[in-house]
Amino acid sequence: MTTILYSLAGADRSRPFSPHCWKIVLALRHKDLDFEEKPLAFTEISEVEGGFSKTVPILRDGDKLVSDSFQIALHLEEAYPDRPSLFRGEGGKAMARFVEGYSQTTIHPAISAIALMDIYNILAPADQAHFRKTREALFGKPLEEVFPDRDGAIAAFPAKLQALRHMLRSQPFIGGEKPLFADYIVFGALQWLKVTTGSVHLPQDDKALDWFERCLDLFDGAGRKVA
């Protein structure tokens, strides 16, 4: 039975952009598993698999349905122990949990301040209405007023990756000599920024950018196949 990954895209279904889904694209490649990716619009997510989840990624792996990127990674690790490990043990799982916390509390808010309107602009009209309604309810103000200083957010963004640069002084990946799921967590965030805005907004001589380029090259350039 085909393994299916439901992901997220805007009006152009060839450009999936969810950071959490990109984690799983690379996790599936890491495990060398064949799968079919089905990008969805925001308003379609609740219609697939009997309304299994309101968010993506959703993975159908045979008769198993799993949502939440970290839970999917854990499922892949347990279901395919003979394939390359995403964690290399309990320590790797704990490390990935820490990296996930760092990404979602430091990197994601910084990206949102840059990309909010870019995301809105790549959506189809029905999804633009959904996105505006839900985000304006969350922030309590018009979408255009949520992050008024985009240029300032871009200028401040490189500093959010200083912890990554510090680590890169001693090893090429967060996982060491080779990447682990922890790498795919941060990669997913930067890929989200790149696909939605066209850039990761880092200087050309930045070690964090070098790391991102190495991640783009993984698995026959899987990350480069989206314009």
From TrEMBL:
MF GO annotations: transferase activity
Cross-referenced CDD domains: GST_C_etherase_LigE, GST_N_etherase_LigE
Organism superkingdom: Bacteria
SUPFAM superfamilies associated with the record: GST C-terminal domain-like, Thioredoxin-like
PROSITE patterns cross-referenced by the UniProt entry: GST_NTER
Keyword annotations of the record: Transferase
Pfam families linked to this entry: GST_C_7, GST_N_3
Domain GST N-terminal: 8-84
Protein name per Swiss-Prot or TrEMBL: Beta-aryl ether-cleaving protein
Record lineage: Bacteria, Pseudomonadati, Pseudomonadota, Alphaproteobacteria, Hyphomicrobiales
